[in-house]
Protein: diphthine methyl ester synthase
Amino acid sequence: MRTLSSPTPRDIVHTPTSEAQKYGYQKNTEPPLLPSVVKGRRASCSATAWRRAGLQVGSVTAASLLLGSVYWRLARATSDRRIRSPFRGSGSHAPHPADTSMLYLVGLGLGDATDITVKGLEVIKQCSRVYLESYTSILTVGKEALEEFYGKELLLADRETVEQESDDILKAAGDSDVAFLVVGDPFGATTHSDLVLRAVKAGIPYRVIHNASIMNAVGCCGLQLYNFGETISIVFWTDTWKPESFYDKIKKNRQNGMHTLCLLDIKVKEQSYENLMRGKKIYEPPRYMSVNQAAEQLLEIVKNRRDRGEELAITEKTICVGLARVGAADQKIAAGTLQQMGTVELSGPLHSLIITGCMHPLEIDMLKLFAIEESCLDNLTMSDSSTYFS
Ligand SMILES: C[S@@+](CC[C@H](N)C(=O)[O-])C[C@H]1O[C@@H](n2cnc3c(N)ncnc32)[C@H](O)[C@@H]1O
Structure:
């Protein structure tokens, strides 16, 4: 995920670049030099002139520091709030002046309504409008349960709203605080950079309240996060569209000894071909790809590649991990072969699949806790002195 900047602890609140340029400070370094401080510096610079005039440097420096400090205090009391707003509450979450609005991107975590952070909940309570992004992920509870727990009405924001009507969200954020809720982490395997970039362009400050993401929570199966390669998405095949590009990324990861996290397709607000053709806004029920469906598609690719005489990156016997509803009370993890993933029962959504790369003995011991059959982890090939491969 590309970020706009590499935030320092003091850069939790992001400010539009135009504002940064306007007030002449650099991003991601020191906090801004407010006009008052700049004035203080000018006072300090004038020491050269004083010194030339033969006065004691020490006393002049002290005087200029004092002057700077008085200016600073005065300016703090009277200065334009817009100047200070980008850094207000930085590091804390104290209430802020009502005349400066903010766009908050709030992560909801992975399980249910109670996975929100204390910071996130405080933000929701103070916002005049709260949108719930509803197309990249889901919790185990629906909108009503969230509304009850947060004590706030939520506006559902589907892909259309976010991509085509983001101006409405930003217009609201220009008038008063607005929260945009995202399941997991707002920047974990979801790209809301577009909304952020538009906010920055419109001069609306934004702040991100992070939470757990599937990108880090998969560590619960025992495979170590620093042994993962590129994350991939497995899409639902249709009768006429069966892309295999994700297999090639798995191949690259396996060649490098890395595990592959496969995020599985979600289809919400999908129109049937007929309804699309007739322009009827009738939507199919949501679909969430299961580990079984992902494994079936992968097994078909393995077969295709074998038929073509290719050297295989994975086989039916490759060790995989299926994960369902990570973070929820009824989460399920199952380790076994790709073939076994085709039939393992993990019940309701959301599901993720991991294809293993080289495994450390400790990772293998952890996987045994979740093994469908422990014996599948007994016959691994030693890839080097300390790791094993399936
Ligand atoms: C586009 S990602 C959304 C990521 C989200 N913003 C986050 O930070 O977790 C959605 C995919 O991640 C996986 N996923 C998300 N939450 C999950 C969970 N609790 N358990 C298993 N898989 C999950 C599923 O494969 C799902 O289709």
